Amino acid sequence: MEIERKYLIDRLPENLNSYPCRKIQQAYLNTAPVIRIRRQDNDYFLTYKGGGLMVREEYNLPLNKESYEHLKEKADGIILSKTRYLIPLNDRLTVELDVFDPPYENLYLAEIEFETEEEAINFTPPAWFGEDVTFSSKYHNSVLSDPANLEDHS
Fold first, then answer.
1. Looking at 7, 19, 28, 48, which residue is catalytic?
2. What is the pLDDT of residues 84-135, one digit of tens each?
3. CA atoms within 13 A on the CB side of 27
4. How far is it, in rounded angstroms, from Cα 116 to Cα 118?
5. Which end of the chain, N or C, is less packed with Cβ atoms under 10 Å?
6. Which domains, ranges and CATH numbers included, belong to the chain?
């Protein structure tokens, strides 16, 4: 089960390059339910995500590079590319800050994963966070992969 909150970020932190990061590329084989493939640095995954906004099922299976490349040819829509920065908030919570590459080069999204729904509901975001978009499917990566939604984010 994945429990997360998601926020738009208007201005990136000044010391962003001091945090660890991962280069991510992901594509979608299906969007309802979500079936995604992802390359994260040199690791590859196939992911199933159930319906929902703040809480939803998520299962990850490892892939090898050859399987990833084969499935990528079958993907629909935009293949998303982004850099994910890992910024600690406290001893338990980490902000996963996604800085997207074109065609979403001005989109910055922060996600925080929680252990419980109660913890997610009671979360107070730091001052540098923007609009809470947790309950908007508009910012799901599967929605961003649809070229028809490009104008909504330009």
1. 28
2. 999 999 999 999 999 999 999 999 999 999 999 999 999 999 999 999 999 9
3. 15
4. 5
5. C
6. 2-153 (2.40.320.10)
